Amino acid sequence: MQRGLRTRRGESRTCWPFSTMAADSSRKGRLIVGETLILTGNQAAALAAKLCRVQVIAAYPITPQSKIPEVLSEYVERKELQAEFVRVESEHSAMAVCISASLVGARVFTATAANGLAYMHEQLHWAAGARLPIVMPVTNRGVGAPWTILNDMQDSISQRDTGWMQFYCMNNQEVIDQVILAYQLAERLLVPIMVCFDGFRLSHTMMPVEVPEQHRVDSFLPPFASPYLLDPEHPVNINPVVMSDPLPDGDGTMCPSYMGFRFRLQETLENAFPVIADAGKQFGDVFGRSYEDCFYRYRAEDADFLFVTMGSLASEASEAVDLLREEGTRAGVVGLRVFRPFPARQLVEVLQKAKSVAVLEKAISYGYEGALATELKAALFTHNGHHQPAVCNFILGLGGKDVKPQDLLEAARDTLQSSRDGLRQTKPRWYGCGI
Amino acid sequence: MSTAIMDLPEQEYIMPGTRTCAGCGLPIAYRYILKALGPKTIVTLPACCLTILHGIYPRTPIAINAVNNTFASTAASASGLAAGLRATGRSDYTVLAMAGDGGTFDMGIQALSGAAERETDFIYVCYDNEAYMNTGVQRSSATPSGAVTTTTPITPKEQPKKDFIQIMEAHHPRYLATTCSSYPGDLYNKFVRAREVRGTRFIHLAVPCPPGWGYATKDTIKIGRLAVEAGIVVLYEVDDGLFRLTGKSLNMARSGRKRSVDEYLKSQSRFKKMGEEGISAFQKQIDDRWDQLIRRAGF
User: Is the pTM here over 0.80, yes or no?
Assistant: First the structure.
């Protein structure tokens, strides 16, 4: 059993067993498995990798992710984890190592953020195109120039179209859970997955985390069985040049074209939702926390005003919702756990009763608006032509800018006013620029 | 002693159907590399002439396992293969990384330096045809001075070739060797030795390129030999720190006979703009390096 993480110097870290579970009424009647530790998001991610028995780790340090490879180095050096740790010279190489190790059948792990993720960009396409079940935490951080080491989501949102699945976590419990969940899903679907969580706000913040027991993780996540064979008798040339039309193999069987491969990836992602729900339900059966739903929902059931957002902003928005409810506004929060594939139909169902929606984003598609706002509006257009709530987009929290409850209340009032006036917001509003 | 042609293994790992240009030096060398390394080899390669050699999906003429990777990451990919194979209990595979001069001298240098510093257990081969041949003969840092390329079309390259072999030697690999596709026996021996050694092994392989260098496709062997006989390519190895000349270069050092660079330069249209002054400067570059190397070998 995990008894707390230790630093390289050996001093104990503040992640001792936490024993107030019996007094926690919110946990009543729920399956409690495993010990509760106080962990940072980074410690939770590293511990999840260990519980998943990753076989090859390749990582390059970048703030705010650095603790993840540090903790994993300790696990490996203490022989608490049987894994090859390749201390690469760059993020580009980190992903190259993961790609090749995965191709020969190893369960692989890396983590990065910001410019490190941007530096991997080419490899992200390669990993998804090669259909490799790589799981990578991203500790969300703003991208330079100018430099910032602080949090926003521009890094991972900019990698939206690489073919990776993207999960977003709102607390450290979700970090440990979603990494474990991601391995099962990635290996079932043969798609790599980014598990994104806010830099510093989660990566460096300690929270109680219920740590799954090893034997339960083992039952949830069997060893990785690679679909690639490595047999000298039947050699293969993996990911060679593929032409634009199907061609026959040696036996005359027609094989896919480049576009055929691309379509298969798209098809897998389009059809992933039942698999995500199944794995999320299985997770609930084994660990007592279900992730069947693509969304975190807070007082959303009867809400006619909704915050729609991702990551730790969903927690912050929940507090704003309580204040709005006190003022008499029927407000709620919907936090997307899954951003790719985009749960368009499910999102529209959630928005069914909402008259107005404030989309809160820590990223921007320059020259237009936040990606989530664009996609939400497109989803409404596609899946529900009649019910069109007022949708306002708010860009906030870039480069670590604090998001205050007043900001969220103002966003809500702004949105409600637009709705009353029947106005359509034509460009996103920025909060906290301080120009 | 170089292995005699008649004593090389009969087993072939390259079948008919490679898509290289006529007269390419690469498949000649690759044939003997694979004979030396055998079927329990997995090769990783970036986008390069070797990708073309390996053919178009879904067919390949190559009878060993191959992994394609991105341009800058050949040695990192090899690190991943080595780690993945060890983690899954298959350390008996030889991991071979093979990239051109662009993917080694230029874009791949970071990943290669990293892998060599980590003492990764693999063989890295830079097959050097002295320009970005796969994209149409653009200048690389391996292009010699005086050569016309499609990105030095009017003024031939002014800077000398990067001394990449020295850069690799400074990483102190367990085994380092230079060889050329025109000397299969020398090449075969060096890969047999590389296979025996554990740790990082680096082999610089000179391969002439008919379309890029501008000579008739029938002359690939001859051009490679001219390069060695003029001391432009020097055959040697550094085995666990011990330097020695091999094959033709060793014979040349012993006999003291070395051709001038004239015939080599005049046999290729890429050097057509080189005047007398350029030729003598080139000769001096080559002589200086040759003198250094034979002195190092004790001659």
Answer: yes
